[in-house]
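If you are new to this repository, start here. Below is one unmodified record pulled from the training split, so you can see the exact layout before writing a loader.
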Amino acid sequence: MIEVTALDAFADRYVDDFAALDPCRAAMMGIAGQEACLTDYGPDGMAARAELSRRTLAGLAAIPVQNGGAGGAERVAAEVLRERLETEIALDEAGVREGFLDTTDGPVQWLRQAVELVDQGPDTPWEALHSRLRGLPAALAGLRTSLERARDGGRIAARRQVVRNAETCLEFPAYLAGLPAGCGDGRLRGALEGAVVEASAALAGFAEFLSRDLAPLAPETDALGRDRYQLGVRDFLGTTLDLEETYAWGWEELARIEGEIAAAAGQVMPGEPLGAVRAALDADPAHRVSSAGAFRDWIQELADRAIADLDGVHFDIPEGLRRVDCRIPPVESGIYYLAPSEDLSRPGTVWWTFTGPEMVTWTVPSTMFHEGVPGHHLQIGAATLNTAVLNRYQRTSSELYPGVCEGWALYAERLMDELGLYRDPAHRLGMLAGGQQFRAARVVLDIGLHLRLRIPAGTGFHEGERWTPELGREFLRAHIGPEPEARVAFEIDRYLGRPGQAIAYKVGEKVWLEARAEARRREGAAFDLKAFHRRGLDLGPMGLDRLRVELARA
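And here is the target side for that same chain:
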């Protein structure tokens, strides 16, 4: 029987209180119990969440914590929670929550995802779905009040974020309209249809408010500056950085990876330039899938095969994680992973937008390994199930630690290459020209844009000029291959809305690689890669500074 300590009980209560005040985030984190509710984004809801952070931090100081046990697990748990609470308070005190809108991860997106997560096809809990649909108008009204208050205080998100959110609100009703069809209960189906009409009207009204009332007043300047960027680094990575040094490292890493890409392209089509190799792979019917259903089946098979290849050999995958559910989202929302619910009633899920009419697949395997196994599904799922070592906060908080989690997932892409599991040379090229090159370019671009740094000499790209969104789009087109202009514009908008998040992948991967190299030096011939991974996963989610310290103790 596992002993429940005072800290465990305290962390459990905090998770319950957090979920009650923020059901949308709780849904994404897999926290059970709030399936019928939505978050209050009005001023009172925001104040209640801020007060919870302060109250919990004060209460944590009074909890007796043991430093012993398995690797000082209780000490680690207390430090992880303390650091997160201190960061939440710093974000509140800096006014980051006021007027907050984001392209991919803000209140509008959380409301949308809260509805999508309840939608389980024939297995949908229809009463919970009905409740969330009915709650949408009030949630949007509360968010509007908060945005109006922030506007009156001089805080408005940059115009590109406001416009993107208006577009999201106008896209969502088309998906909502199809939800009632699967409900077999005639009475409830009628109620669902009514709730859809009201929710759709509220979304249209909120889009009009954003476009008419906020967008004309929103600042055109996107760069948020050094202080706000460092706060973003603290939030997303759990560390502090020398930003100029990291910016220079990003350029070096990008050049190194592009050298690897040239060599990998030569293995696919010897003597041909990279552009010709890309074009040939894009056109090859062997690397194309022509329907959403076929693509879903293709990535599901890829995910299943990775689990079969790794389980019992390179990792011991818990039984509850030997399946990841691959799904096509109802509206375009990119590619992302959502953790399983605590009780595994909702499996770990990879959502992958099918952009059609056909999907090119030679870049897909590395992304599937990033989102599935050995990436997010293994790391986040293992934390969710690890009741022997981690308290409930640790088991459910992976989403709050992109540095460790996205860093691990990018490391996982490389690991599959080290293990020889890219069976087609084109798939290895896809890993390099997709994930690795793209994430290195993000380091350069994210820091450069927000700090408006100069482009250094020797790069061959607008040397000496300061970064602008227009230069950012040109830079991405040069370094991520041919992509639709809408994708490039979306990426720029994403970076400008979330300072620091885009660098979490490469900086996090760097920490994992450095910790592994240090463990090899320390342990010599006794180093065991499988054991290193097990130690790292058993630590659970945390900031990068804490990860460095704890892996060095192992």
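Two things worth knowing about this chain: The mean pLDDT is 93. The CA atoms of residues 220 and 537 lie 42 Å apart.
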